[in-house]
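residues and backbone:
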Amino acid sequence: MVSTKGRAAPTGPFNAEMIRKVLADRKTRFCVPVKHLRVNLPISVSGDGPFRDTFVNAGIHDVELNPRGAAFVIANNGRALGIKPNEFEWHCPYGSPGDRLWVREDFVVITDGRHATSIDVVYRADGEFGESYNRDGGVDDSDRIFHAMRIEERCLPHYAPRWRPSIHMPRWASRILLEITDVAVERVQEIGGQDLNPWIWAITFKRIENA
């Protein structure tokens, strides 16, 4: 099981095929649409020449991109100030290089009855079993069993095993931990004959083994 550190990865990119590729180390990047584009300026940035009085203080700022991908922020005087790639870092909602993400996937909790003393987690992508937990394993395992039974109560009153959507996976049941190695903003290529070109977060990662 994974460390409790980190934040949940978005569920959208991680379907069954993606999960299998990540486990086989054949996939090291996922993409999600940009909803709110921001940058972090480590130091203040100012304009050149006649625009030296135009500046933006260090910190987190909304940013706009032109069709070529050049970044602009609104300066102190309301002007749009261009910023260079080496002057900012992307402020991605999923984290920065070095941050960790735990992955949620479709799963099922198998218990030994209504008053469970043990549970097993099975993953739908490949049918693999995760760790087993029992009440003799200490407080943490007992809490996990209680949580698992609450999942069963909410989803199905008869406690029959059934696949659960990834959105319901608790952190302790996750088996995949990723470390972000790079964050970029890219424009999707032409889709279906229409030049939609939405901006996307392109997040590169490495899988942490035995985490």
Q: What stands out?
A: The helical segments are 16-23, 139-155. Residues 38-90 form one domain.
